[in-house]
Amino acid sequence: MLSLASLNALDRPAFTAALGHLFEHSPWIEEETWPRRPFLDATHLHAELCATMRAAGRARQLELIRAHPDLAGRLARQNALTAESTREQASAGLDRLTEAELAEFQRLNTAYLARLGFPFIICARLNAKSAILAAMQARLSNPPDLEFATALGEIEKIARLRLNDLLEKPT
Ligand code: GUN
User: Fold this and answer.
1) What is the whole-number distance in angstroms between the Cα of residue 36 and the centre of ligand 1?
2) Average pLDDT over residues 143-151
3) In the chain, what are the helix, strand and coil shares in percent, each to the nearest 5?
4) Ligand 1 pocket check: which of 21, 23, 25, 88 to mutate, most ligand atoms within 8 Å of Cβ?
5) Taking the chain, what is the end-to-end CA distance rounded to the nearest angstrom?
6) Ligand 1 center from residue 124 Cα (angstroms)
7) What is the C-alpha separation between 12 and 100, in angstroms, rounded?
8) Are 71 and 109 in contact (CB under 8 A)?
C-alpha cells in the first residue's frame, strides 16, 4: 500500500514503476503526469492522469484502447493477462463461463472489433457478466466516435479502481 506523500516524493522512474499498471500497458501516462505533482489526494492524482490521457493525440488513445485484452478472449484462456486484468475479468465471472457463454463472448468480441476497429472496453469490475453481454450487444451498433469516447471513459474507471487498490485509505 502506498501513501500520497510517499508517491509525491518519488523520482520519475520510481513514480512510473509504482503506478505504471493503472492504464493497461501504457506507463507513458504516469511518466508524463509526474511533473504535475504534488498530488493532493487520489481524486486529484486520478484527474491529472486522465488529463494526460485526454490530451494525448487520437493515435495514442487508440493504442491505449487496443492495449486492452478482449473480455473472455484468447489471452484470458491462455492465462496471459496482466495481474490486474486477471482480477478484473474474474470479478465479473468471466473466468467461469459455460461453453455457450464463451461462444457468445467470442462472437461479440469479433463483431465489435470488425466494426469498430478496437476492442470492446467496459469496466469489468463494475459490471456483472450479463450486463457486459447486454452492453456488448447494445454498443455494437453505436457510431465509432461514440464508442471511442465511451472506451476512454471506461478506461478512466478501470484506472481509478486500480489506483484505489494501490493507495492507503486516507485516515
Ligand atoms: N477489456 C475490457 N474491459 C476490460 C477491463 O475492465 N479490464 C481489462 N484489463 N481489459 C478490459
Assistant:
1) 27
2) 98
3) 65, 0, 35
4) 88
5) 13
6) 6
7) 47
8) yes
Domain 69-143, CATH: 1.10.3330.10
- Give me the half-sphere count of Cα atoms (radius 13 Å) on the Cβ side of residue 18: 19
Ordered DSSP codes for 38-87:
PP-SHHHHHHHHHHHHHHS-HHHHHHHHHTSPPTT-HHHHTT-S-HHHHH
Note if 46 is an active site residue: no
pLDDT in tens, 21-58: 999 999 999 999 999 999 999 999 999 999 999 999 99
| Pair 170, 160: CB distance under 8 Å | no
> Would you say the CB of residue 122 lies under 6 angstroms from ligand 1?
yes
Cell numbers for 116, please give them.
469498430
**118 near 70, Cβ under 8 Å?**
no
Contact by Cβ (8 Å): 139, 151: no
**pTM, 2 dp:** 0.95
Number of H helices, E strands in the chain: 10, 0
Give the pLDDT of residue 171. 55
